[in-house]
Specification:
By secondary structure, this protein is α/β, with parallel strands linked by helices. The chain has one domain: Rossmann fold (3-Layer(aba) Sandwich). It is built from 8 helices and 7 strands; from the N terminus they run αααβαβαβαβαβαββ. The longest helix has 15 residues. The termini are far apart. The structure holds S-adenosylmethionine. The site of S-adenosylmethionine (SAM) has 16 residues, from helix 4 and strand 2.
Length: 215
């Protein structure tokens, strides 16, 4: 799946006028590509810059991330945490823990990050926290369930960001041409749209980020 909806020249131009990725994050991206063969899954320069800037503007005390992978987005989000802030991040795949930890340590944020291994649906029930910011970036078929599970744990005025909500443009195809994941994402988008408890904006950055603010 290619995940850019912009013409390449515009994407390149936008990157040129965005604060460059740190050498550490470039190295993490490179190691992810080499070792996992699934480098397209990480947030990358532009989305990472957005997550980092959003978090630094917000200054959250508690962040929840569903879908750690190799730790790129967690590293970006953690930059905005308050001095006593904590980011909880969940992934079903334990293999990549060490890689993520190594880069968080270099970036000076490892102490603020708690990693959990397991199915997010199960792990979420064990984390007794309320959150300022939640980033959903795991299996698409469970986005609706994650939304329901985290909503009561989100503080009023808090944000949920959900990644891949354009699903490479598949969300606008007729239903019979959509993959199972694209269909699940479209239903998630419909759910957010119908929720009177929130304000929301679908930001067409990279593969689309649904920004949800709890009223
Ligand atoms: C797109 S990647 C996350 C990328 C990461 N947020 C970033 O930007 O660098 C999705 C991750 O979700 C994890 N995942 C998939 N299904 C899951 C589940 N049921 N529970 C927890 N994690 C899951 C995968 O193992 C994968 O590492």
């Amino acid at each position: 799946m290619s995940i850019t909806i912009l013409p390449e020249s515009i994407g390149t131009y936008a990157e040129q006028f965005t604060t460059p990725e740190t050498a550490m994050m470039t190295a993490l991206g490179r190691e992810t590509h080499m070792k996992t063969g699934r480098g397209e899954m990480l947030s990358g320069h532009m989305q990472g810059a957005f997550l980092s800037m959003f978090s630094q503007a917000m200054r959250p005390e508690r962040i929840l991330e569903i879908g750690t992978f190799t730790g790129y987005s967690a590293g970006c989000l953690a930059k905005g945490l308050t001095a006593n802030g904590i980011l909880h991040t969940i992934d079903i795949d334990e293999e990549l823990h060490d890689m993520a930890y190594k880069y968080w340590e270099h970036a000076g944020v490892a102490e603020k990050i708690r990693q959990y291994t397991g199915s997010a649906l199960d792990v979420l029930l064990t984390i007794d926290e309320t959150f300022d910011l939640v980033f959903i970036d795991a299996d698409k078929v469970n986005y609706e369930a994650y939304y329901d599970l985290v909503f009561d744990k989100l503080k009023p005025g808090g944000f949920i960001l959900a990644d891949n909500v354009l699903y490479d443009g598949e969300v606008v195809l007729p239903v019979e041409q959509q993959s199972k994941n694209a269909r699940a994402i479209h239903l998630f988008n419909e759910k957010v749209k119908a929720d009177p408890r929130v304000e929301h904006m679908l930001l067409p950055l990279r593969d689309g980020i649904m920004m949800v603010r709890k009223k």
